[in-house]
Design a protein that fits this description.
Elements (H helix, E strand, L loop, with lengths): L2 H24 L22 H10 L7 H31 L3 H23 L4 H26 L6 H5 L1 H23 L22 H4 L17 H29 L5 H23 L4 H32 L1
Helix pairs in contact: 1-3, 1-5, 1-11, 3-4, 4-5, 5-7, 5-11, 7-9, 7-11, 9-10, 10-11
Amino acid sequence: MTTKTFSAIGIAFCFVVIGLGAWTRLADAGLGCPDWPGCYGFVTFPTTMEEIAIAENLYPDSPVEIDKIIPEVVHRYFAASLGLLAITLLVISFRENKLKAESSILLFVIICQGIFGYLTVSLKLHPLIVTTHLFGAMITTSLFLLIFMKSLNISNQYLTLIKNKPVIIIGFILIILQLFLGAWTSTNYAARACLDLPYCQGQLVPKTNFSEGFNLFQTIGPNYLYGQMSNEARVAIHLTHRIGAIIVFFYSIFLIFRLWSAQTKNILILFATILSTQIFLGVNNVLSSLPLWNAVAHNIVGVMLFLTFVVMTYLSFRGSNEHK
């Protein structure tokens, strides 16, 4: 196989891993296994009554819950397979003598992801660690995407993107900030803080605690499953995420009109479709009390928005370099 084929497989595989990670987190199964990389000391996980007894003797504070173990173990195996995929891609890149640096960086990032996977468990779902782990997954996917795009040898000149590079970069920064807010909302269990629209807990301006809500460096030690923050702090996080969504929406509308041309039409139609889907999923998260399938889809579509900006940014910089 070629780097192009393998990087395309990597992109698809990343979405599977991200979806499984979101499912694991949103099903409150992030600590389904209290150890890493094993599960209760087993290579897979305890299944028989004897094995469960051994597991609970080893970890008396973590009773075995099979319905939480399975999502965690499945996610781990798929994430490990992604590492093997990256190693194979690196070997292919050296064999083809191209994209070696990009493939090496990709493997390094995945190794770091493994470290953060360990820290996620050992630090008991510390919000900053989990949020960083989520961003690592997006960086991993974007690296696979960049390798794929570079292997295509795109020759078209996207002049509209080149001329509007600063506007695209601002949009990219806004998306990154909004994705951080979404991740911070999830890792601090603030998604259910407001389950009505346009109000929050029946109030237009509810009580909030922003200093607590955006304390990134929370104490290491507590078990952060289900969160440690007060209701006011979670409301502050949730409302900030909502406001961020409104800002991103209006800027995206401006961006679409600003970048519209014959060359960019297909990209922008795709972007508008993804954005509309994300807005629907976000609203439905609130109105339907965060159904699991909807919340997982909201995570995946958020990554798709991020990748759309990766594509536009790449094309704007690549075109600029060719014009020099």
